[in-house]
Design goal:
By secondary structure, the protein is of the alpha+beta class. The protein has helices spanning 15-18, 25-45, 76-93, and strands at residues 7-12, 50-55. It contains three helices and two strands; from the N terminus they run βααβα. It has a two-stranded parallel ribbon.
Length: 105
């Protein structure tokens, strides 16, 4: 990439690293380390047109709002409330200038 003066790198980190997740210290530490790694690579590649970014996906599953004991119809409103809470936590911990806006269609 340095020789051709062009490159794109996308790393995947995790909510477990950004928000913390009980019982996942090793995984969370590794994924959070990717954030620092991404920033360093971005700085090193900036003058050579090498762009480096990271994503931290969150999975929303339909049964997030109810337990197995009370299995029945999924509570989508509760699942989306969980998702909105996680997004709110992300936005509080990230620099807003680095967060791209997402608009539902």
């Amino acid at each position: 990439m340095r020789e051709q003066r062009y490159g794109r790198i996308l790393n995947t980190c995790s909510a477990a690293g950004i928000l913390g997740a009980q019982g996942m210290s090793n995984y969370g530490a590794a994924k959070t380390g990717l954030i620092g790694f991404t920033r360093v690579l971005a700085a090193e590649g900036a003058g050579r047109n090498i762009k480096v970014n990271a994503i931290a996906p969150i999975r929303l599953h339909a049964d997030a709002g109810h337990s197995v004991d009370g299995a029945g119809r999924p509570d989508y409103a509760a699942a989306f409330a969980v998702l909105n809470d996680l997004v709110g936590q992300y936005l509080q911990k990230l620099e807003l200038a680095l967060v791209a806006a997402w608009w539902p269609s």
